[in-house]
Amino acid sequence: MRIRRGLLLVAALLPVLGTALLAAPMAASARTHHAMSPPRTLASGVTYSTFRFPSKTYPEVIRVVTIAPSASVMPFVSLSNDQVAEPAARDRLERTSAACLRRQCVAGVNGDFFCTSAHCPKDIDEPEGGIVSNGRMLRSPYSIGWEEQQLSFDANGCPQPPQPLTWSGSLTSGGTTLALDGVNVDRHSGQAVLYDAAYGPAAPTRTAGVDLVLRLDDTDWLGDLSPAPVTATPVSLTAKQGGFPLQPGSGFVAISASGAKAKALQAMWAAWSPGQQMQLQLDTAVPVTNSIGGKPLLVQDGAYTGQWDNRAEVARTLVAWKPDCTRMLITVDGPSKASRGMSMPQEAAFAIALGATTAFGLDGGASTTLVGPGGALLNKPSYTGAGDRPTASSLLFVAA
What we know:
Blueprint: H1 2-17, H2 24-29, E1 35-36, E2 40-43, E3 46-53, E4 60-67, E5 73-79, H3 89-92, E6 94-95, H4 96-103, E7 105-110, E8 131-133, E9 136-139, E10 150-153, E11 167-173, E12 176-179, E13 182-183, E14 192-195, E15 210-216, E16 230-239, E17 252-257, H5 259-271, E18 278-284, E19 290-293, E20 297-300, E21 303-304, E22 316-321, E23 327-332, H6 344-353, E24 358-362, E25 370-371, E26 390-391, E27 393-399
C-alpha cells in the first residue's frame, strides 16, 4: 500500500509537471486529487511551490523551493551559532529560521542529523557528519559505514555525488609529521585532534594526554582547506589539562593527543627551538567548498536506492537535483490531519516525479524546516515548541 501510494503521488504530479512517464488516462484521472500553488518568486531564479493532496486517507502537503542553474545564489552550510560545542550545548543550537536571518539567506532547510550512535560524543547535540563552510572545515565527520556520506557542493554551487568526506590533516616540524585524526570532535585513545574557535570558547579539558597550543601567523585561519600549510609558532605544551581559550581571530589553536601520538607531540615540542616554525595543513581529496552530513542517498541515476528503506510516514527533508544543476529543497509536512508524512520510498518517488536524478536526505521529523527570505517559515514544522526546532546545522542558499 505504501509503495502504491508513492506511485499515486507520482501520477498526481504528472499533469502539473507536463511529463509523460505514465499512461495519459491515469494522469488525467489524477488531476482532481492534487492542487499546486502558483510558484512564488523568492529571488531571481528561485521559486517556491506547495503541492497539496487533500485525500481523506492520505493527505499530504509538500513544499518545494526550486533553484535554477542561472540563479545568483550559492550554498552555505551554517554551523549553529558558529560553534560545534560549548558547556551548555543546547544554548549553542540555532533555529534554521534564525540562521537564515543571520546569514540573509534566500532559502534554506534544516541540516544534519543529531549524533546519537555509539560512535558519537557524549554531547548528542553535535552534528553527525562533517561540516565544510565556504572552504573551511569546521568539523570532521563522525559517521561510519554507509552512513558516512556528505552532500558537498563544488565552486559553482552544484551538488557533487554524495560520498564520504575524505580529508587529511597534519602538523609538521622539521622532518617530523604528525597526522591528525579529527577536527573539533571528541578525541579517542591514540588520536590527535585539532581544536580551533569553531569548536567553542575553549578546548576540552583533559584528564589524560597532552595539548600543544599553537599561534598561527594567519589569525583569520579557521580550518581553511588548502594544499598549502599555514605556519605556526608553538606556545605551550600541557599535560592532563586542556581548556585553552579559543577566541575567533586570536590565531590560537590546540592539538590534543593521547597514546603514541601524545609522545610524538612531546618529541616535536622538545625538538623545537625559538624562531622555528611548524606547519599546519588541512585538505580534502576532492575540492569542496561546502559540505554537510546526512543520509541516505535516496535517488541515484533517477531510481530509488533503497539504501535506508525507512517506511515510517513522518515529516521529511531532502535535497534533490538534476544534471543541469537545478536544485530542489523539498520538505514534507506531518504527521498531522492535514499532512500524513511520507516514507522514504514515497519521498523518493516524489523527487523522481519532479525530474530529479539524485536526491539526498537530511534530518526529518521535528527538525524538518523550510525557510525563505528573512528566515520566514515556508512549512509547518512538527516541532512541539514555538517556531522551528533548534538544530546543529542548516543548509542555506545566499546571494552570490
